[in-house]
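Chapter review: from sequence to fold.
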Amino acid sequence: MIKLYFFTILSFVSTQVFANYPPYDAVATSLGGSSVTYISPFSIEFNPANLCYSPSKISINAQNRYGIRQYSKVLLIGNYSLDKSAIAISYQAENGIVLNQKLALAFAKKFNQNLAAGITINFNRFSSQDPYYKNNNVLTFNAGLRYQINTKNSIGFQIENPNQSQITEYPKENLPARIRLGIKHELTKNINAYIDALKSNNQQINLCVGIELIKEHYKFRTGFNLNQMIGCGMSFKKASFVIDIGLSFHNHLGISPSLNTSYAW
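The token string follows.
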């Protein structure tokens, strides 16, 4: 009975993870999921066009979802910025009923000072000890745009896995296709607002809203989205090192902590 109950919980969480909860880093977690216009190396996941505006960094994210040991993720990223372009590579390992290992390679380019585009190619390896699931390799991509409207406003767009790559043939399971559109607005010199609209092919539109307060070496963030998630967090910068802490709260599933560490070079 205990095993059956535990499997039921894991199955429910799995549905939430893959359908409603993209793999956010600590910053996006604290902003309620807003991420398509936030500039960081983790843009390789949310909008590779932003990589053109991020300094060269080595970054790592570690997170756990809802306090369940079986749902944890580690993501390592290295990005290198040139004058009008950027490249990045990342490796991700995500536990669950199915282990997902992902190797990603991204390229971004500025067309002018205000417009940039980028693309990420993802090689996914799905494996499981459960005989119900077969091991499989899947190739996907995501592409994004960023446009600086003026000094206070910018917009971003990303399309992810538009061909809905198939994970298993029987039972037939596909990775979701997602479209994300967002805006960043500078309320004051030290306060930024972020709003994203996220649409998965099998889900209703999810609206994400976040606020960031900048105070010297610190940043404080909070946000929410319509999938019953509230986020909060902060970051601290010391010379070339940055540490970001994010927490999300789901009224049914619980708390999901996330931690970023980055070094600029």
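Two observations follow directly from the output. The longest strand covers residues 115-127. The longest helix spans residues 2-20.
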